Each structure stands twice: as C-alpha cells, then as structure tokens.
Amino acid sequence: MTTQNRNTLLNGFCLVVGFLAVMRFMTVPANSTEGELRENPCPHTPSASIQGVPCSAVLAAAEVYDRKVRPILQVKCYDCHGVVARLPLYSKIPPVKGMVEDDIRHAKKEFNMSAGFPFMAEKDFLDDLHELREVLEEDRMPPRNYKAMHWKSGLTTEEKKIVMAWAKNIENALKATRVLPPASE
Ligand code: HEC
Q1: Cα gap 23→17, rounded to integer Å
Q2: I need a surface site. Which of 42, 92, 168, 181 has the fewest CB within 10 A?
Q3: Which residue among 78, 135, 152 is best mutated to probe the pocket of ligand 1, counting the most ligand atoms within 8 A of its Cβ?
C-alpha cells in the first residue's frame, strides 16, 4: 500500500469515527406516540390488590423505585423501554430509523417501563423483577450495538448493585404478601 493510499484510508476512518462521535450527541424530539403511556394498574386504595399482591405493598415498592431506581434506568434504558423527550439524531436517518423503531417496539412489548413500577410486561408482574435482574447479571442490556454508539450507557457496578438489590428485595417482599385465589377445580 502506498503512503498516499494509507493516508486516504486513515482520513476516511477518522471522518467516520468523528462523524459517529458527533452524531450520538445530537438529538431530535421523540414522537409522543413512542411513549405509550399506561395507567398504573394499581388503584390508590390500600385495600385493592394486583395479582394477589396488596396495593399498599406495591405502592411502597413503586415509591422506592421512583426515588432510587428510576433515575438510573431512565438514563440507561428508557430510550427503548420508556418515555423520552428526545432521541439521538441518527435514529431518524433511514435505514437506521426502521431498525431503531423496530427495536423500541420490540423492547416495549417485552418490557415496558413507561409508567414506572409495576412494569407489567409478563403475565406475572413479579417475574419482571426476576427478568430485570437476569439481564443485568448477564450484561445483556443495554444491547451491544447501542452501547457501541453510547459508550457510557452500561450500568456502573454501583448502579447495578442498587437496581439488583431493589429488584431482589421487592420480589421477595411482594411474594410474601401475595394471597393467591384458591385453585379452581
Ligand atoms: C437500544 C434499545 C434498548 C436499550 C437501550 C435497552 N434495551 Fe432492553 N430490550 C431491547 C429489546 C429490543 C428487547 C427485546 C429483545 C431482546 O430480548 O433482546 C429488550 C428486552 C429487555 C428485557 C426482557 C428480557 C428478555 O430477555 O427479553 C429486559 C428485562 C430489558 N430489556 C431490560 C433492559 C434494561 C434494564 C436496560 C437498561 C440497563 C435496557 N433493557 C436497555 C432494547 C433495549
């Protein structure tokens, strides 16, 4: 390879890296339809219950979620699993646009954090807590291609500890309060 060829290649490479580095900081307003806001299914009456778990316990868990866990997940996960005001500019450029929209649709179907806790993606809302712990333990979320564009989007060890401890405590505590209906014959 001649020096000139090598320089051209190097310049091209720098251009691409520079372009990506700038792109990921530029954002555009997100469509409100991407939010899919959902009512909290637990009514604010302590005597009611959700899937056999008293609402008083669910609301106490949601309060800790909003205070300690949500601020972490909001930054690292809500681009795909929740409601955000802005999305990266690159997410509007075809064909990336289609891929990102597919990802978001898929992500919200699997796991929707839009309305906070309970997430209500699974049939059993306590299974969501288990799944949340599992993806963090196995470093499966955020997805690798997203982390490539957003270098600091992975959870720090400290953040992981906070989220996982909350999920584990809440899963155990809520399971203990659950009153299952008698099995029908
Ligand atoms: C770039 C988009 C994106 C981001 C950011 C993202 N996710 Fe996901 N997530 C997905 C998609 C797509 C799926 C469904 C397909 C799959 O499981 O890979 C998913 C699935 C999940 C599931 C369901 C588990 C499963 O195996 O299907 C959980 C739990 C989850 N994500 C948690 C998180 C958490 C926690 C974060 C932040 C730390 C996060 N995700 C960040 C796109 C994303």
Answers
A1: 10
A2: 181
A3: 135
